[in-house]
Write the structure tokens for this entry.
Amino acid sequence: MQLVKPAGQRDAARKYDILTALGAYALARNKHDQRLVLRMITLMTARYNWARDELAVGQREIARLWSVDERTVKREMAKLRGLGWLVVKRQGARGRVTEYGLDLERILSMTQAEWPNVGPDFDLRMSGKPEESPVVPLPVKGHVPEPDVSDGTEWALAQAILYAEAPDVYGSWLRNLIRVGRAGGRLTLRAPSRFHGSYVQTHLTAKALAACQAVDADVTEVVIVV
């Protein structure tokens, strides 16, 4: 999969995405890794120059920022270099601090497995998949009734969310999807026609998955069959 390059490091949205990816990566790991990544994030937000790809700060200042001693700073900075996240651009000498850059491609690559934990929209955006095209609702005769949630299935509850978000799109494309069954994290839905199923699969699967995950986090995939 082609990763989205963090080109345009001036882009504020991309900065937040990178920090979010690091946070999700940390939360999926043990407390020692979490602390290391938290220190990395704090260093980035406090001292990293995104426009110049430059992190130039002395060990004493880092120790104060992290509330640790300088020996801990040396050890943790070595770990970050070992991960490939920090890259030495100019070694410190004669009173000058070492200047680092960030290998953002390396950071994105290592955090990629946790992107779906943030949400399908984040995963799509970060992995560079094309966003869904605007969905054109079909004309629907009469009022679209609210979905029946009495059976309590994840799809029934998800339909209520989809109806609230966009009643016209729900009425045109989603209300006629019938729940076939569930196998682990895979939810299978049946469309009334091949065209209908193909359109939903192309344009609305991510939206349906997000709604399902909002009511049942164990849903990992939505499959459309005819």
Residues 31-47 form the longest helix (17 residues). The beta strands are 55-56, 86-90, 99-102, 178-183, 186-190, 221-225. The chain has two domains: 12-127, 154-225. The two ends are 29 Å apart (CA to CA).
